[in-house]
Design a protein that fits this description.
Helix content: 40-55%
Oligomer: single chain
Mean pLDDT: 85
InterPro entries: Glyco_trans_2-like, Nucleotide-diphossugar_trans
Enzyme class: transferase
Largest sheet: 4 strands, parallel
Distance between the termini: 30 Å
GO molecular function: glycosyltransferase activity
EC number: 2.4.-.-
CATH class of the largest domain: Alpha Beta
CATH topology of the largest domain: Spore Coat Polysaccharide Biosynthesis Protein SpsA, Chain A
Pfam families: Glycos_transf_2
């Protein structure tokens, strides 16, 4: 689908939703969402990732999205290596708006939740400390997202420069677990937490 087709489809869906019996629930946090600045908060939980963060940091520093439209929140959780020093160096030299939080508890879920409470942009994305993002990843997320949408990107695994797994194809072949029908409850909780 082209961006124009996606936008037209979303407009149609929104018109139907706003006239439906659940409109108040579906759009309960729209005012709060629209009050946040346009852009995206990148949440990176880190547990002993000092030796694995270089590619992610390079890809974050080289994003095509204007730097004023994104921030990176590193949530260090239970780190006993040099992760803090690596993140401090990135914050000092990259020119990317960077927030660093620390917890002694090595819990990726807790780290993500604490970081999400600090997110200041309309959208948020979660990436792992050993990921590498395409140059236009954040720009694409921002251009495709809106109040009622969650952007799901394809994840591929490379080994020695060769494709080892295409996650989207795996999901298509096996289906979602848990079933996708539980998504609206999850999405409502996430939308309510973004500030």
């Amino acid at each position: 689908m082209t961006y124009e087709e996606i936008a037209a489809f979303r407009t149609l869906i929104e018109q139907v939703e706003r006239k439906g019996p659940h409109a108040a629930q579906l759009y309960a946090y729209e005012t709060e969402y629209l009050a946040a600045p346009e852009g995206i908060s990148v949440i990176v939980p880190v547990h002993n990732g000092a030796d694995e963060m270089v590619e992610l940091m390079i890809s974050l520093a080289n994003q095509s999205l204007e730097r004023s439209r994104f921030e990176v929140i590193f949530a260090l959780n239970g780190c006993s290596d040099a992760s803090r020093a690596v993140v401090d160096r990135f914050a000092a030299t990259s020119g990317v708006d960077t927030v660093i939080i620390e917890s002694e508890n090595p819990s990726v879920a807790q780290a993500r939740n604490e970081a999400l409470h600090l997110a200041r942009f309309r959208q948020a994305t979660f990436v792992d400390h050993d990921d590498h993002l395409s140059r236009a990843y954040l720009e694409e997320c921002v251009s495709l997202s809106d109040y009622r949408s969650v952007i799901v990107s394809n994840i591929i695994k490379l080994e020695n420069g060769a494709l080892a797994e295409d996650y989207a194809q795996t999901v298509v072949a096996r289906g979602f677990d848990p079933p996708i029908s539980t998504a609206p409850t999850i999405l409502r909780c996430v939308s309510a937490s973004i500030r």
